[in-house]
Please model this.
Amino acid sequence: MDDAETGLAGHADAGRDAGDDAALIAQSLRSPERFAALFDRHAPAIHRYLARRLGPDAADDLVAETFLVAFQRREAYDPANADPRPWLYGIATNLIRRYRRDETRLFRAIARTPAEPAAEPMADQVTERAAAGAARGQLASALARLPGSQRDVLLLVASGLSHEETAVALGVPLGTVASRLARARRKVRAELGGVNPIETQGG
Amino acid sequence: MNEMDLIKDFCAEQAPPGPERLAAARARVVAAIEGTVPSGSALSGPRRARRLPRRARGFLVVAASGAITAVAGLVIAGTVTGSGPAPAGPPRPAGGLANPIGWNGNLYPLGPPGLLGAEKTTVAGAQAKAGYPVPLPSTAAASRANLTQVWVAPHNNRQAALVFDKGKVDILMHRATYQSDLRYFRAYVAQKNKNGAPGAAIGQVNGRPALVIPPKPAVVIFNRNGVSVSIYSNTYGTDTLLAIASSMR
Model:
């Protein structure tokens, strides 16, 4: 039984560019099995994004949901959008919205979790890591306090989407992304004390 | 390093998932994809040989549609009875009707509750609408005494679903669409092993082959008189599910 027979073909497609993804989505309208390749290319990143926001167990479920929704809606995909990442991140973000409280709980839990000890007890590393750990806790706490719409923008941008792509993902104007991002960053900065805790404590 | 760099680091510290972590999600997506392949479509002709055999496709179609129906039914259950959570609640520990089989309505975006035509009924009603006998188990974990709900989707592969002990055990049934259970069970096990997610095995239910998948959810699938029966549980292990399967009359 080869990959094609088991429906597992598609790994060989990894590495193609985004334009190929748009073509692949179009092809999947006629040959649905082609859609599996889209999963292989983008599921790891989508899972990582979901896991950061909701934890790995929830991400296991939601990454499948994301691609099932995408598969159902592929007819509506605009082939002019060569890169499907904003589309996929947008679906994932929509799904996350149903779990806002879980996300907030996760970030609060992270905020309470102490930093991992340094692997090598070099003084500088210990200091830096402790400071980073403290900042991480403050950061998680700050993320928990953000309004969901601002958190969406902040974490999509932090996950590697451009402002334009984030606007596409969320279905909002670019200006809205910019204003939400600015507000979110301002709030996070304030939560962190208005200073860089790593530089302050580490150096 | 500013706050944006910190947030990027925060996101980057989340390790990417390995293939084994994504295997189950991929299997669900592939099953859904396989369930949509129209016969006589572009898949005919030379490419057809590269696709799953028809009966194997049937297996996947049924697996996907069974999952969809179960989830739709359970979402409806929560909505109709008020005993469950909002249809799109977060993942929760197993045991309650909110998350009886680990999916927790995560196929809900495929359509609103009821779209797949699942309707709440009785055992007799399910038998009448499904058109085949709906057997009941008789074990401590699942029996008529703790039968919580019965669902049937007469226009969706004539599926029936039994929910026991508020979702600790779910049994889905539909007319078997494949001839050789063993062949496809073996194919499933081989596929899992190839994916680096071993654990599925071939077992027996009353002398007939059964596909046994370890938690979570634990699953036992077997054919009973031409009806494919799938038993799911997030609470019990495969031994309990095999006992449930063997007791079905």
